[in-house]
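BUG: 3D viewer hangs when loading the predicted structure for this chain

Environment: internal workstation, default settings.
Expected: structure renders.
Actual: progress bar stalls at 90%.

Input used:
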Amino acid sequence: MVSKIEQDHQRFRQIVRGKIRKDLRKFLSRDELIGREGKKLVSIPVHDIDIPTFRYGDNSTGVGMGEGEEGQSVGQQPGSGDNAGGEEEGKHITEVDISLEELADILADELELPRIEPRGSHRLTTVKDKYSGVRPVGPSALRHFKRSYKEALKRQLAMGEYDPDDPIVVPVRDDMRFRSWNEVKAPQSNAVIVYMMDVSGSMGDEQKELVRLEAFWIDTWLRRNYEGIESRYVVHDVRAGEVDKQTFFSIREDGGTRISSAFNLCKDLLAESYDPNDWNIYLFHFSDGDNSSEADNKLCVKLLDEHLIPSSNMFGYCQVASAYGSGNFINVLHDAFPKGSPDKQGPRIITSRVNRKDDIYDSLRTFFRQGR
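Structure tokens produced before the viewer hung:
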């Protein structure tokens, strides 16, 4: 039977989930959540939820204490003194700890995202040691104290040496028992995410911040669906290079743009390390839509058609608004991969536009509503 306090706690959690769902679009644009990435819990500020607490006031004056007439107000008059307070009701803000997994589930419920079905039937296999028995030999670090004590007690009882009035049990070498283990092969459905971003002169800090927020929620949702995730980061202007995560979101570059450089590098990464028969592959490219030439646009389409799309679960292109970018690349993709010609699992490429933080909500729904 669930205790009353547990029922109250569950009801409180349901209220919190309802508040978060109501303001989900706002939470998706909160920069400070990114700082908790990789940790189990994040703190969410929730308005208008009061947790009952004792509140202590000033007991220096009151009824029956000091001088005063009937009907006179007790204590300092409102609005008086050096720091006069207002008379309007304040907003109550409560910090509620919630796991990223639970936040991802709320995201899925609100955006009506289907659970992702891993691609293919083959899964990676990891080997783990599982302690499955007890044996009479082994290293001291694996000594099973309870079983060793029981063996010593059985030996003393059998030999008539056990005295219940003086119950001293001392194990000898033959009484010792040790944990034993077996190697267990566990199937693990793994995924790799390759993030690619244009860092040319037309991509400023505002555009990179939009990319950072979008990538955080992409990562959160995919980690909820897979046991293991690897992330790779590629930046490019006219040339592409792989960088670490911190560099990906902080690098400042200048110059022109050649998107095919990133696609070529991504193709080489997949060929070297990620067999599509073993890995669920997610590719995301972020850009303001500027590219160097029509010839490079055609090369990009060829790389997508022949290499990247066939080997991946999904290729997502996210275009962020920039005052300096042409914004044309998304039209190139729409012309090359029209929405009316999907493959068996859905559109061959999924595109979205993120012009401001509020657009992240709709962008995530666009990317993952296929459940791929």
